[in-house]
Amino acid sequence: MRITLVGSRHFGVTTLNMLREHGVSIVRVVVADAEDRLAATAKAAGIDVVVQANPKLVVASEIAPDTDLIVTAHSHARIGKDALEAAKLGGIGYHPSLLPRHRGKAAVEWTIKEGDPIAGGTIYHLADRMDAGAIAAQEWCFVKKGETARELWERALAPLGLKLLADVIDYAKVHKALPSKTQDEQFATSAPSLS
Predict the structure, then answer these.
(1) Where is the Formyl transferase N-terminal domain (predicted)?
(2) Domain ranges, ordered by start, for the chain
(3) Most buried among 28, 38, 41, 133, using CB within 10 Å?
């Protein structure tokens, strides 16, 4: 399976490392910033790196030829429809909430702010609307009393994201397709950023 990884920062690097250990071919890494640690890690591993022309949008020309699947890991760019069509299976991303709850940026912070006793992560199909594509995999975890967003992310949600991404990629390798369940819009929440 040939994967183009779009991402940044620490979660992008840990996703890259998980993919490398998972028997897939990472044919390209796409980043918004040439100085990002994901770009440096990919270059050191001999992986082709492309810097997005527009940091808010990934286009088809930035996706490696013959890509089977686009995987996003800590990317805030929209993956354009033409880019999704350039990959045989489209694209998936990890969102650190039980979608459709807490769509958008700052999902972990909103989990804490809302006092949710349960959090979780979702692997979802990338689509025109941010965080609104079909669910490929989802799992929950408890939130500890007094836990900060960063503590919840590091303790539970980042490891859960790597596990769920691996599970969906394993499924795709076997079935040449992605699991898919439509999000139930009646449970959607979307909050403004916390800034």
Answers:
(1) 64-157
(2) 1-88
(3) 38
Lowest mean pLDDT among 36-40, 91-95, 125-129: 125-129
Q: Is the pLDDT of residue 39 over 60?
A: yes
User: Percentage of the chain surpassing pLDDT 90?
Assistant: 89
Q: How many helices (H) and strands (E) does the chain have?
A: 6, 9
Outline where the chain has alpha helix (H).
9-21, 37-44, 81-85, 107-113, 149-152, 158-175
Q: What is the torsional sign of CA 54, 90, 135, 139? A: negative
Confidence class of residue 191 from pLDDT cuts 50, 70 and 90?
A: low
User: Does 128 or 20 have the greater pLDDT score?
Assistant: 20
> In whole angstroms, how far apart are CA 32 and each of 122, 124, 131?
23, 21, 19
